[in-house]
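General statements about sequence and structure are easier to judge against a single worked case. For one protein, we set the task of working out the structure tokens from the amino acid sequence alone. The sequence in question and its structure tokens are set out directly beneath this paragraph.
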Amino acid sequence: MSIGFPFELDPVFRAMTVADLDAVMAVENVSFPTPWSANTYRHEITRNAHGAYWVVSPRGAAARTIPPVLAYAGTWQLGDEVHITTIAVHPNWRRRKLGEWTLLNLIAAVRQHGARLVTLEVRTSNAPAIALYRKLGFEQVGLRRGYYIDTGEDAYLMTLFHIDDEKVWQALTAELAAIERQTQAPSDGDLPAGR
């Protein structure tokens, strides 16, 4: 049995900076078969006008004893459409709803910037991530054959529609509140890493 959300870390969802890159790369390199480079992230956060990247960091006493980046995520936004480019959780903090919490905070952030829908690709074999996306209302809208160059694996294209609709938004905020209320619960559907 896994324990609940890591309240003890007092996590904060904040904008990624260049100073975060070493810690981001530590997670990136153990999360993906074909990791992005630090230079890719540097470009995304300093030069891509359409990109937005965030990290989840511990605060307080925990910040002195554990990794400085627990999770991170990134998006590209064009008009009212947002594409999630990456999302990952540090291996030591998986299965504690931190991936779901990160994703919900990401959706809240892009919604504040006028997004109406969110899309992403996910490996067809990544059952935990697919289950989480479906739980939050993402729909499979396409299949990208051979999308992942490292293995040739297909990707599902999934979309969460109408995040600007109050009914959809209330369901998402209810999920976030449920995570933040829990003290100890199994979390089989947490998001390990997705791209």
